[in-house]
Amino acid sequence: MPNAAPPQATSPARAWGRYVLAGLAALVFAFFMITGGVAYDVAWKLIHPSRIPIAETPSRQGLAYRDIAFPSAVDGVRLSGWLIPAARPGGGLVIEAHGYHQNRASDAPALPVAAALHRAGFAVLMFDFRAEGRSQGSEVTVGLYEQRDLRGAIDYARRLGYRRIGVIGYSMGAATALEVVAKDRAVRAVVADSAFADLYRYLSTHMPEWTNLPNWPFTPEIFFELRLINGLDVSKVDPLRDVAALRHRPVLLIAGSADRIVPMSNSQALYRALRRDPAASLWIVPGAKHVGAYTVAPKTYLARVTGFFTRALGSGQ
């Protein structure tokens, strides 16, 4: 039987190469563990903003109202809100949709718009999105599952007998309104104040500004963590993609020239996507900041909004 060949010694160069590769692998692993931990913290805070207490009610505007509750569509999250009845039941109704880290009454235009619409003869439904205000839920999804909430509000209004329904939204609520109304032709008109056009592009652009973190690797990791935590796929919140379905229905886009949170270019892109539909209009308010058109020009804002819904839905009565 032939003798077995003696084992060959590993050359120093090959052994050193293995140590280098193992060291690099350890460094890469540690790098992504650290950056992944930071990304997880950012993602967690994004979808768990602190709740803002409701400090005012419609009575501040001299309006009678009643507390309401209804389920979100699909997953049945219990949502809390107010119904401000019109002078005569069965008329038109406008739903207000608030912004990110806000509640039904905290956006500057919310209660004044409700009062103006009521005076014009409309009922108004104001509510808190999930995990905001007094609604149930534990996670905000920046316009994804909020679409279910707005659909729940529309379904609730229909159960009350309203058929001439419009929506006005602010910031995240504006983007949510565009998405929902594009898919629900029974809603006749929408006002979108300071809407973002595309959540993926919007967050990709602005995340480094908010977090002071480099875009790579943090922004892709934050998006990954959002999907891991609660299934939030930011690419699914894309009004720019869906808004074309609103053609031939009245749409009013409002933006401020001094908005640094959601620049007016978002509303301009949405208007272009509507191909300058005669039923659509874009109002850019010089000097207005985010959801700031009402603050800059309150009388004009209320006149434009009430006039828009009166034309789109008919007389409130």
From TrEMBL:
Q: Which GO terms describe its molecular function?
A: serine-type peptidase activity
Keyword Membrane present in the record's keywords: the answer is: yes
InterPro entries reported for this sequence: AB_hydrolase_fold, DNA-binding_regulatory, Peptidase_S9_cat
- Keyword annotations from UniProtKB, A to Z: Membrane, Transmembrane, Transmembrane helix
Q: Where is the Peptidase S9 prolyl oligopeptidase catalytic domain?
A: 120-315
Where does the sequence pass through the membrane?
20-43
* Any Gene Ontology biological process: proteolysis
Which is one Pfam family of this protein? Peptidase_S9
- Per its record, how is this protein called by name? Peptidase S9 prolyl oligopeptidase catalytic domain-containing protein
Instruction: Name the species this protein comes from.
Output: Acidihalobacter prosperus
